[in-house]
Specification:
3-stranded antiparallel beta sheet
């Protein structure tokens, strides 16, 4: 019986980098995950420092959440590469500050072939960069 390929094998087939895995040389420790899995106690990887007003902490995530974050970051990077241009030819960012000046004219959307996003947030960004959803404030 042929085994079904695991997610990392499918990712590699798509030429995307593979996220860190337990047992692959990264410094995994036992502890609580801070991200999407509801703080379960498992093997976690330190992602870096996190801060809020006046406080900092070390941010840790389990293998599943690291995988999800990894693909979200790749989806964001690909979305920014394909972001529409404003009337002056500058890429329209996915995040705007209320202090940003209004963009000149409507965005010009590319008619390029886009990779299919792997995450829910990536699918939202994809709708914005292809013009299927109008960004707020435009």
């Amino acid at each position: 019986m042929t085994p079904v390929p695991r997610l990392p094998d499918l990712i590699h087939a798509d030429d995307r980098p593979v996220p860190p895995r337990l047992g692959d040389g990264w410094d995994w420790v036992l502890g609580r995950c801070w991200l999407w899995c509801a703080n379960r106690h498992t093997w976690v990887l330190w992602l870096g420092p996190a801060s809020t007003t006046g406080h900092h902490a070390s941010l840790y995530a389990c293998e599943h959440c690291v995988d999800r974050l990894h693909h979200t970051i790749i989806d964001y990077s690909e979305a920014m590469t394909d972001a529409p241009l404003d009337a002056t030819g500058i890429r329209v960012p996915l995040y705007l500050s209320p202090k940003d000046p209004p963009r000149p004219g409507p965005p010009r959307y590319h008619r390029a072939r886009h990779r299919r996003p792997r995450t829910a947030l990536g699918r939202l960004w994809h709708r914005l960069i292809t013009g299927r959803e109008v960004p707020p404030g435009t």
